[in-house]
Design a protein that fits this description.
- By secondary structure, the chain is mainly α.
- It has a single domain (3-341), classed as ABC transporter involved in vitamin B12 uptake, BtuC (Orthogonal Bundle), CATH 1.10.3470.
- It is 76% helix and 2% strand.
- The protein contains 14 helices and two strands.
- It has helices at 3-30, 38-45, 53-86, 99-112, 131-153, 158-182, 186-197, 205-224, 226-234, 236-241, 246-268, 272-286, 290-314, 323-341; strands at 119-121, 124-126.
- A two-stranded antiparallel ribbon has the order 1-2.
- A hairpin with a 2-residue loop joins strand 1 (119-121) and strand 2.
- The longest helix has 34 residues, at 53-86.
Length: 344
């Protein structure tokens, strides 16, 4: 295949996914127990008026979920592609750093401090809707800081980062289990477990703005570093010979990816599987060049989370399934299909 034809194929894929997102966002908003027309959703999105007041509030909540799905999917999709490059491991992701265990530990610690108040999380209420995300975010950053400090002492190689992450993740998981066993009551344990399922419904408009802002900033960074990620994904020697410091890039990319994943996880819970499946789907179509792979992973991640969240709202309506559960149910067969198609 000629380079020009391959370039067109890659751009076509990006365009198709982008168009699908523009169609599926209003379509997702229109679906649910209370149905709305596609035209009503378009009017709502462009603030055109004419939407029946009895359904406007419901559509706004669905629109918030849909936009959150796009932002969270973009952050985690590109994060997975970035970590697979700097660690040169097809199974790597931001959650290889143990962010999910650290964030869950943060939630458990916040509950242990006696959080109570007005915002409902199933049967437990919290005084501030930002307290749990804040603790999850802080503990995620602490996890990453410890891992990077340990791996720095070992030379900041991809093997050092992975081994440090595994060791500290087991430690955090042990602390979480200890808190659940000795100190948390049944309702608090249920809260921690439910939080790990992943749920877009807990993101409010302020959290959505933060998540979208993180997605925009990270997309700019990833595209600026796309060529360097191509080099480091080959080997450290290739990166060195091309004028790129692989240790510095690995540290920088890990920090940026961890920040993005921490933001997404603190607001939406754990969606670890997305970081694996989105880059592999994108790589199957656009190849390994990161100037195409990164935007393709972002768009694919957004599409997968949006579809999973929509299915979770409608398949057992009025029961809403957490997006993390649906995403794993949908993504696991897809990853197996990619494995079989790619011959391993």
């Amino acid at each position: 295949m000629s380079a020009r034809k391959l370039h067109r194929q890659r751009l076509l894929f990006l365009l198709v996914i982008l168009v699908l997102l523009f169609i599926l966002v209003p379509l997702s908003v229109s679906m649910g127990v209370i149905k709305a027309s596609f035209l009503d959703v378009i009017k709502l999105m462009f603030n055109d008026g004419g939407v029946p007041p009895e359904i406007e509030a419901i559509l706004m909540l669905r629109l918030k979920r849909a936009l959150a799905a796009v932002a969270v999917g973009a952050i985690l999709g590109a994060g997975g592609a970035s970590m697979q490059a700097v660690l040169r491991n097809p199974m790597a992701s931001p959650f290889t750093l143990g962010i999910s265990h650290a964030a869950a530990l943060g939630v458990a610690v916040s509950l242990l401090m006696g959080v109570s108040g007005t915002t409902s999380y199933r049967v437990i209420t919290v005084h501030s809707p930002y307290l749990l995300p804040l603790f999850a975010f802080i503990f995620s950053l602490l996890q990453v800081a410890v891992i990077l400090a340990l791996s720095y002492r070992a030379g900041l190689t991809e093997r050092a980062i992975i081994l440090a992450a595994i060791a500290i993740s087991f430690f955090y998981q042990a602390l979480l289990s200890l808190l659940q066993y000795l100190f948390l009551n049944e309702l608090q344990v249920a809260m921690v477990v439910f939080w790990t399922f992943g749920d877009l419904g807990r993101i409010d408009w302020t959290g959505l703005k933060i998540t979208i802002g993180a997605a925009v900033l990270l997309s700019i960074y990833y595209m600026a570093r796309s060529f360097d990620l191509d080099l480091i994904s080959l080997s450290d020697d290739v990166a060195y010979s091309s004028g790129v410091n692989p240790k510095r890039l690995r540290l920088e990319a890990t920090i940026m990816t961890a920040l993005g994943a921490s933001v997404a996880t603190s607001f939406a819970g754990v969606l670890a599987f997305l970081c694996l499946v989105a880059p592999h789907v994108a790589r199957l179509v656009v190849g390994g060049a990161h100037r195409y792979l990164l935007p393709a992973s972002m768009l694919t991640g957004s599409l997968l989370v949006l579809v999973a969240d929509t299915l979770g709202r409608v398949i057992l309506s009025p029961v809403v399934l957490p997006v993390g559960i649906v995403l794993s149910l949908v993504g696991a067969p897809l990853l197996v299909y990619l494995l079989l198609r790619g011959g391993g």
